[in-house]
Write a structure and sequence with these properties.
- The complex is a heterodimer of chains A (286) and B (354).
- Chain A has one domain (49-281): MetI-like (MetI-like fold, Orthogonal Bundle).
- Chain A starts with a helix and ends with a helix.
- Chain A has helices at 3-33, 47-56, 58-90, 97-109, 112-122, 129-136, 148-176, 180-188, 193-221, 225-229, 243-253, 257-282; strands spanning 36-37, 44-45.
- With 286 residues, chain A is an all-alpha fold.
- Helices cover 75% and strands 1% of the residues of chain A.
- In chain B, the strands form four sheets. A six-stranded mixed beta sheet of chain B has the order 6-7-8-3-9-10, sandwiched between helices. A six-stranded antiparallel beta sheet of chain B has the order 13-12-11-14-20-21. A five-stranded antiparallel beta sheet of chain B has the order 15-19-16-17-18, with no helix packed on it.
- Chain B has 354 residues and is an alpha+beta fold.
- In chain B, strand 12 (252-254) and strand 13 (257-259) form a beta hairpin.
- Chain B is built from eight helices and 21 strands.
- In chain B, helix 2 (92-102) crosses helix 3 (107-120) and helix 3 packs across helix 4 (136-148).
- Classes of the chains: A mainly alpha (286), B alpha+beta (354).
- The interface between A and B is medium-sized, with 18 and 24 residues.
- The structure holds adenosine-5'-triphosphate (ATP) and magnesium ion (MG).
C-alpha cells in the first residue's frame, strides 16, 4: 500500500475499531448466539432451541400475527392519508402553510413518553376525550386498553398519528419537484384536475411513495414504543404484543439472548423481504 | 375576422401592472412574433391568450368569440413551453396522444394523428422512448408534435428554442417556419431573439414595459421604426445612435459635419435630437455625401464581413459593417461616410421625427 493510503487508514483506525467492536461484532455475535441455547450456562450449540422454537412457539405466532395485522392496516392507511395531507399542504389555497407543515411534522419531534401519556389520557375509558366525543354522537364508550380489537385499533391510530405528517412532508417534497408547466400543458389539453392527479401526479410521486412505504414497513416491523407504553406492554393479555415486544421480553426480562437474537433476525428478514417485494411490485415495467 | 384579437387588455399582479392596455389583431394563418426585453410581459400576454392567466381588464377574442371566462382547455389552443413540459413518465407516443385520449378520442384516431405528426417531425424512430432518453432538439420536436396532434385553432410558442445550442436553433427555426407554411396555422411566437423575430415573423410585435412599442412586417420595423427603442432593438449589429442638433434650416449638425435628413417639417429653434444610423449604411472613404472621422478601436472579422468598432472625435461609439476581410491598423483614423436619406432622426423622448 502506498504511504498516503496507509496514513489515511491510520487516521481511520479509531473509528474502524469502534465500528467493528460496537456495530459489526454485535451483528455477527448475535447471529451466532441465535444458534446457541442460552437458557442455562454454559451456552451450547443447539439450533433447534431457538430457530426450531420459532416454528412452534404460540407467543411468536401471536406476535407475528399482530405485527402483520398492524402492518397491513396501518401502512396503506397512513400512506394514503399522508398523500392526501401532502396535496392539501401543497395547495396554493392554503393560508399559513409554514405553520401547518410544522404542525403535521411536530409529532415526530415530540418525546415518545409524552406522546404515549397523551394518548393514554385521550383514550382513557372514563375521562378520555375520545369516548366523550363518541358519546356525543351516541356511541357507547369503548374500553380502548382492555378490548383486544380496540387496543389494536388504538395502536394503529397512534402510529398513524405519529408518522403520517412525517411521510406527508416527504411526499410534499416530491410534489414540489413536479414542474408546474406539466399541469399547465395538461390544462390546455383539457385534462381534468382529477385526471391530472391520477395520470401525472401519482405516477411522478411513485418513487417517493415507494420510499415512504419501505421506511414504514421497516418501522412498523420493529414496533415497540406504542404497545409498550400505550397498551400496557402488549396488553390486554398479549393482544397487542408485537415482535419488538416479544424480543424485548425474551432478551431483557428472561435473558434468553439466543431466542431474542433469532427473533431479531426474523424481524430483519421479514422487513427486508417485504421491502424487496414492494420495490419489485412498484417497479416501472415497460 | 381575426383569429385572435386583444382589446385594451391589461394585467396586474397585485399592485404591479405588467400589461398596460394592449390592442392587437392577429389574422388567421399569420405568424406573429412577440419580442421585447426580458420582463416586458411577452410570456404574460401569451399566457393570457392561452387562459393560463386571468385578464385584469379588456377582452380576448378567439374567432370572434369573447373568451375571457372560457377555460383554457376549451379555447382549442396548443402551447409549446420553453421547458418543453413533456410528461417524464410517458413515452414520446403517449406524450403526444395523452391529451387526445384523455378527451375520449378513439385509439385508432389518436394513433393516426400521432403517426402523422411523428412523420412530419421525423420522430418515428423515437416513439417508444421516454423524454429523458432524448436530446434537447428531439424533446422540442416532441413538444411541437404534441401541439400538432391537437389540430388547434392556434399555436402558442413561449421561447421554444432558447434551451438549444446555436446550430440547432437555426435548424429548428427553419423547421418551425416550414411547419407554419405546411399547416397554414395561426402561430404566436414569443422570443427575445431579434434574429428569430426577423426571420420567422409575418408580423413582429415589439413590447416594452407592457406596451406595444410598434407592430408590423419585419422589414418595415427595420427600415421605418417609430421610435429609438424599436430601432435599437431590431437589427444586428445594433443601430448607432449619436447626439446632434436639428437646426431651423432643416439641417442636422453631427460632429464636424452637417446634413439635411429627409424630414417633412422644420423646428422653429435649435433642437437636441438623436441620429440613428445602421452599421451597414456606412462606407469607408468619402463616397457617400456626409463624412465623419472614425478612430478604429477593433475590427471583428467574421470572414464574409467585418464589423469595425470605433469612436468619433466626440468620443461617441460607432459600429460599421463592411463586406470582406479587413485588417486596417488599430488606432488609426479613417474617413467614413453615409447618405443623409439613411439617417433616422429621433426626438429627445425617442419618438421618430419624419
Ligand atoms: N405570477 C407573477 N406574480 C408577480 N409578478 C409576475 C408574475 N409573473 C410575471 N410577473 C412579472 O411580470 C413581468 C413580465 O413577466 P413575463 O414573464 O411576462 O416577462 P417576459 O417578457 O416573458 O420576460 P422573459 O423574456 O424574461 O421571459 C415581470 O416583471 C415579472 O416579474
Ligand atoms: Mg418569458
Amino acid at each position: 500500500m502506498r504511504p498516503r493510503t496507509l496514513t489515511a487508514y491510520g487516521f481511520l483506525t479509531p473509528y474502524l475499531l469502534i465500528f467493528l467492536a460496537f456495530w459489526v461484532w454485535p451483528i455477527i455475535s448475535s447471529f451466532w448466539m441465535s444458534f446457541l441455547n442460552t437458557r442455562r450456562l454454559p451456552w451450547t450449540f443447539a439450533p433447534q432451541a431457538n430457530w426450531g422454537r420459532l416454528l412452534v412457539d404460540p407467543a411468536f405466532a401471536n406476535a407475528l400475527k399482530n405485527t402483520l395485522i398492524i402492518l397491513v392496516v396501518q401502512v396503506p392507511v397512513m400512506i394514503a392519508l399522508a398523500t392526501v395531507l401532502a396535496v392539501l399542504l401543497h395547495s396554493p389555497l392554503l393560508k399559513a402553510r409554514g405553520l401547518f407543515r410544522f404542525a403535521f411534522f411536530a409529532p415526530v419531534v415530540v418525546g415518545e413518553v409524552a406522546y404515549a401519556a397523551v394518548f393514554r389520557l385521550m383514550f382513557n375509558y372514563e375521562f378520555g376525550i375520545i369516548n366523550k366525543l363518541l358519546a356525543l354522537i351516541g356511541i357507547a364508550p369503548i374500553s380502548w386498553t382492555s378490548n383486544p380489537t380496540a387496543a389494536m385499533a388504538l395502536i394503529i391510530i397512534a402510529v398513524t398519528w405519529r408518522w403520517a405528517g412525517y411521510n406527508a412532508i416527504l411526499i410534499l417534497a416530491g410534489l414540489q419537484s413536479i414542474p408546474q408547466d406539466l399541469y399547465e400543458a395538461a390544462t390546455l389539453d383539457k385534462v381534468s384536475k382529477t385526471r391530472q392527479f391520477l395520470f401525472i401526479t401519482i405516477p411522478l410521486l411513485r418513487p417517493i411513495i415507494l420510499f415512504c412505504i419501505v421506511l414504514s414497513i421497516i418501522g412498523t416491523m420493529q414496533l415497540f414504543t406504542e404497545p409498550f407504553l400505550i397498551t400496557n406492554r402488549g396488553g390486554p393479555g398479549g393482544a397487542t404484543e408485537t415482535l419488538g415486544m416479544l424480543l424485548y421480553r425474551q432478551g431483557f426480562l428472561s435473558f434468553n439472548f439466543g431466542y431474542a437474537s433469532a427473533i431479531a433476525y426474523t424481524i430483519a428478514a421479514i422487513a427486508m423481504a417485504l421491502s424487496l417485494l414492494n420495490m419489485w411490485a412498484g417497479k416501472e415495467r415497460r | 375576422m381575426s383569429a385572435i384579437e386583444l382589446k385594451t387588455v391589461r394585467k396586474s399582479f397585485g399592485v404591479v401592472d405588467v400589461i398596460n392596455g394592449v390592442d392587437l389583431a392577429i389574422e388567421s394563418g399569420e405568424f406573429c412574433v412577440f419580442v421585447g426585453p426580458s420582463g416586458c410581459g411577452k410570456s404574460t400576454l401569451l399566457r393570457m391568450i392561452a387562459g393560463l392567466e386571468d385578464v385584469t381588464g379588456g377582452d380576448v377574442f378567439i374567432d370572434g368569440k369573447r373568451v375571457n371566462a372560457v377555460e383554457p382547455g376549451d379555447r382549442e389552443l396548443a402551447m409549446v413551453f420553453q421547458s418543453y413540459a413533456l410528461y417524464p413518465h410517458m413515452t414520446v407516443e403517449r406524450n403526444m396522444g395523452f391529451g387526445l385520449s384523455m378527451n375520449g378520442m378513439a385509439k385508432a384516431e389518436v394513433d393516426k394523428r400521432v403517426t402523422e405528426a411523428a412523420a412530419a417531425l421525423q420522430l418515428q424512430p423515437l416513439l417508444k422512448r421516454k423524454p429523458s432518453q432524448l436530446s434537447g432538439g428531439q424533446r422540442q420536436r416532441v413538444a411541437i408534435g404534441r401541439a400538432i396532434v391537437r389540430h388547434p385553432k392556434a399555436f402558442l410558442f413561449d421561447e421554444p428554442l432558447s434551451n438549444l445550442d446555436a446550430e440547432l436553433r437555426v435548424q429548428m427555426r427553419v423547421e418551425i417556419t416550414k411547419l407554419h407554411r405546411q399547416l397554414g396555422a395561426t402561430m404566436i411566437y414569443v422570443t427575445h431573439d431579434q434574429v428569430e423575430a426577423m426571420t420567422m415573423a409575418d408580423r413582429i410585435v415589439v413590447l416594452r414595459g407592457g406596451f406595444i412599442e410598434q407592430q408590423g412586417r419585419p422589414i418595415d420595423l427595420y427600415r421605418d421604426p417609430d421610435n429609438a427603442f424599436v430601432a435599437g432593438f431590431i437589427g444586428s449589429p445594433k443601430m448607432n445612435f449619436f447626439k446632434g442638433t436639428l437646426r431651423p434650416d432643416g439641417k442636422v449638425g453631427l460632429a464636424e459635419s452637417a446634413f439635411a435628413p429627409a424630414l417633412s417639417s422644420r423646428p422653429g429653434d435649435n433642437r437636441e435630437v438623436t441620429i440613428g444610423l445602421r452599421p451597414e449604411h456606412f462606407e469607408i472613404g468619402g463616397e457617400a455625401s456626409v463624412a465623419l472621422t472614425m478612430e478604429i478601436d477593433l475590427i471583428e472579422n467574421l470572414g464574409g464581413n467585418s464589423i469595425w468598432h470605433g469612436r468619433l472625435s466626440s468620443g461617441e461609439k460607432l459600429l460599421v459593417e463592411r463586406r470582406g476581410y479587413h485588417d486596417q491598423g488599430l488606432g488609426s483614423s479613417v474617413q467614413v461616410s453615409f447618405r443623409p436619406d439613411d439617417a433616422l432622426i429621433f426626438d429627445h423622448d425617442g419618438k421618430r421625427l419624419r
